[in-house]
Amino acid sequence: MSGKVYDGFFIGWGKKLPVGLSGFLIAASLFIVGLFAGTAFSFVISQDDPGSGGFKGRQKIVGVMSSTPYPVIHIAAGDKYPNGHSIMLSGPGKRGVMDQAEALEGQVVEARGALLKRGDLDMLQVGQRIKPIADAQPQDIEITQLGRWKLSGEICDGKCYAGAMRPGNDLAHKACANLCLVGGVPAVFVASGKVDGASFFMLADADGNAISEQLYGLTAVLLSAEGAIEKRGDLHVFKIDLDSVKVQ
Question: Which helix (H) or strand (E) holds 191?
Fold first, then answer.
């Protein structure tokens, strides 16, 4: 019997693989790793862009409280916001702060919390009790009527869409959006076009109050609706006519 050892023979207790087998295993391993990496990359790039929204750090804001249709603080013009600004409010988790806002309607208040921002859509997640500022003189909030419009877009909750969840829209977010709206988080209408430069609108019913539960089932779908639009401070409000809503 020849003393020559077959190079391709595998010995389980050996310290190294045969030359012929090691080359095959290295090539096969690289192929499998590349296949999984390519599949993962293809999956990632096929997903919709979740947007640029997110938490932007803790903030203290001072301004006039408005509770209708949802809690908003209208900040007076200053160094940080030279033209004034209107910031929607929410509480921790899937809760609003309507119970605090109604008692402070029209007063100058101070609120602290985490700021969420996506484009010109801002929301403060209030982290502690909103405080009235004694002896402060509230300023009138400028309200401009912009007429009736027909818009196409999607109903979302303002907190998740501003960046608390990514993505915060479309069907994958429907159940979460409904829970937020039930909890009192401000509803927003994300339009496919713009009115007065705005594509985000705080949503109200035709009378200017918080939207009814009839619209909760229409979150996260493309729809068209008609209604009046008004500008409160620098926040646009879409007063939607329920009978005009059509799923597209």
Answer: strand 187-195
> Mapped to the 3 state alphabet, what secondary structure does 38-98 carry?
HHHHHHHHCCCCCCCCEEEEEEEEEEEEECCCCCEEEECCCCCCCCCEEEEEECCCCCCCH
DSSP string, 124-139: EEE-S--EE-TT--PP
Residues (pLDDT < 50) of the chain are 1
Q: Note if the pTM is more than 0.90.
A: no
- The whole-angstrom separation of Cα 207 and Cα 152 is 20
Q: How far apart are CA 81 and CA 68, in angstroms?
A: 23
DSSP class of residue 36? H
Write the burial class of residue 31 (CB in 10 Å: 0-12 exposed, 13-18 middle, 19+ buried).
exposed
> Is 160 within 8 Å of 118 (Cβ atoms)?
no
Give the Cα separation of 122 and 106 in Å (integer).
20
Phi, psi dihedrals of residue 39, rounded to the nearest 5°: -65, -45
pLDDT at 190: 93
pLDDT tens profile 6-22: 555 666 666 676 666 77
pLDDT of residue 10: 61
CA–CA gap between residue 166 and residue 147 (Å, rounded): 33
C-alpha angle with apex 187: 181 to 190, nearest 5 degrees?
135
Tens digits of per-residue pLDDT, 133-154?
988 887 888 899 999 999 999 9
